[in-house]
Design a protein that fits this description.
Shape: rod-shaped
Radius of gyration: 44 Å
Largest sheet: none
Structural class: mainly alpha
Distance between the termini: 91 Å
Number of strands: 0
Helix content: over 70%
Oligomer: single chain
């Protein structure tokens, strides 16, 4: 295609200049040859221009294709790196935060998880006799509210008293209070 462009351009120049220098303008048939030659030169120049435009369009399309392929590759690498980073972060969080892992296992809603995190160690360590009646009423209301929502006993005890299921003394005390408050 490139060769054809150069040949047509050279021919157009030759057809344009040769008759003007080689043929006489006073002879009739020389004038007609010059006209034909100039017409052919114009036709060659137009064809060369069309080929040049076509080559330019093809080059532009190839550039766009190359950019699209490069963008796809970069996007693929970025997505892969992001997914790898997310997996590493989740693995690290699972290792470093067993409480969160436990909460996920119990499937507590986010708002409930935030409330359960507010229970401090001081509140857990206080003896039951020192707790005010207001605290007991709030626990009773909260336990009944969660029970009405369909929560299980272990989840309610974890939410209200902050104690996980097991044979510990704190869990047994919380379970006894849960039964007393809910009537189970």
């Amino acid at each position: 295609m490139q060769l054809k462009l150069w040949i047509l351009s050279g021919t157009a120049i030759a057809l344009w200049l040769a008759p003007l220098t080689a043929l006489d303008k006073k002879v009739g048939w020389h004038k007609s040859i010059q006209g034909l030659s100039l017409g052919a030169a114009i036709a060659c120049a137009v064809s060369a221009g069309n080929i040049a435009r076509k080559l330019a369009d093809e080059a532009e399309i190839e550039t766009i294709k190359t950019r699209a392929i490069t963008a796809d590759v970069v996007d693929e690498i970025a997505v892969s790196a992001y997914v790898s980073q997310q997996q590493r972060q989740q693995e690290a969080e699972a290792i470093l935060n067993p409480v969160e892992h436990l909460e996920r296992a119990l499937a507590l809603p986010d708002a409930e998880v935030e409330r359960s995190e507010l229970i401090t160690q001081k509140q857990l360590a206080e003896p039951e006799a020192e707790r005010s009646e207001n605290d007991e009423e709030r626990r009773a209301e909260r336990a009944l509210e969660l029970k009405a929502k369909g929560w299980g006993k272990a989840k309610i005890i974890l939410e209200v008293w902050g104690v996980t299921k097991g044979g510990s003394q704190k869990y047994k005390a919380a379970e006894a209070e849960y039964r007393r408050l809910t009537g189970d």
